[in-house]
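Quick one before lunch.
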Amino acid sequence: MPDFVNPFSGMTPDRKMTHAELLRALRMALSAEEEAVHLYNAQADATDNELAAMVLRDIADEERVHAGEFQRLINILDPDEERFLAEGAAEVDEMAEELGGDGSA
Ligand SMILES: [Fe+2]
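Model of the fe (ii) ion complex:
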């Protein structure tokens, strides 16, 4: 589980965040959205109640939208972000190409 240092946890700072602190806060927020996706899907998998599972999966998808918003904002505010993400994506694409697919049986 991600454990980010958060100097402003539980309280509003008495000053505005620096750009670096804002980026850290946004990365923590992005992580929280991914954690929420995991939690809601796990809860949906763990119940026999159809309505509850449907609502939980719908909310999990909404958290994925939030994750996309945070990622896009990070991409705009950190000029290196898209290059690093593209580098990682290219590495996975290369491995997938070696396997001839996504690795599923
Ligand atoms: Fe959210």
